[in-house]
Amino acid sequence: MLTIGLTGGIASGKSTVADLFSQLGVPVIDTDQLAREVVEPGEPALQHVVATFGPSALDATGRLDRKALRARVFADPILRAQLEAILHPAIRARLAARLAALNSPYVVIAIPLLVETGQHTRFDRVLVVDCPESLQVARLLSRDGETASGVKAILAAQATRHERLQLADDVIENTGTPEALVPHVEALHRRYLAMAHNRPL
Predict the structure, then answer these.
(1) Of 10, 12, 6, which is closest to residue 176 (Cα–Cα)?
(2) What is the percentage of the chain residues whose pLDDT exceeds 70?
(3) Which residues, 6+ apart, have CB-to-CB distance to 192 below 8 Å?
(4) 6 near 18, Cβ under 8 Å?
């Protein structure tokens, strides 16, 4: 099974592209969703997070307070590294289980921090959704209600646009409407199917 690692900076349009592949019948695994699953109440990773970051990592219902924890780790690279050391192995284990259960010519794995975590070598191809940083900032300010300083911190914690493009096998430019992405995704879908069927057994 051909594996496509889908990535891009925050607010670049990764989710929109992932949805378009899914509409074509392609299995899409969203590692953000896996990240949410591994910190559900009762999961070992959540217990580890609380042991490391304290009870304030939880909200009043006993679930992970994602917003508060995100604010803490984005402000401190050491804390962010500690959190990643807890979550990434749990996410990778769950990803491996999902992949093992699939039977498809190819699969798309959406990983926002693919470049940052050095996982680009684990996939047959890396697909980057790209847009100018100014557009990322505008989308974040309007979409998530982030402050300018918050947006700056988020972008500083991610790989640069240049770093992502250096590792890309395929690039989708997302500077227009979601509808404008459709022909690009369809063209890649045909290409990936051809590549998958031509692979040696």
Answers:
(1) 12
(2) 98
(3) 2, 4, 105, 106, 125
(4) yes
Cα angle vertex 71, ends 9, 15, to 5°? 30
Query: Residue 104 region, left (φ>0) first, then alpha (ψ -120 to 50), else beta?
Result: beta
pLDDT in tens, 128-148: 999 988 888 888 888 766 777
Give the CA dihedral 148, 151, 157, 159, nearest 10 degrees: -120
Give the pTM: 0.85
CATH number at residue 114: 3.40.50.300
Give the H or E element holding residue 129. strand 125-130
The phi, psi pair for 32, rounded to 5°, reads -65, -40
**pLDDT band per the 50, 70, 90 thresholds, residue 200:** low
C-alpha 145/C-alpha 148 separation (Å) is 9
Which tokens is 57 given? 């990592």
Query: Total domain count for the chain?
Result: 2
Strand 125-130 versus strand 28-30 pairing type? unpaired
Query: Is residue 67 pLDDT above 90, yes or no?
Result: no
Structure tokens given for 140 = 């974040």
For residue 29, what are the contacts with CB-CB under 8 A and spacing of at least 6? 95, 98, 99, 107, 108, 109, 110
| Residue 97 shares a structural domain with residue 117 | no
Average pLDDT over residues 160-182: 93
Q: Is the pLDDT of residue 72 over 70?
A: yes
- Among 72, 107, 87, 77, residue whose Cα is nearest residue 35: 87
Residues 189, 171 share a domain: yes
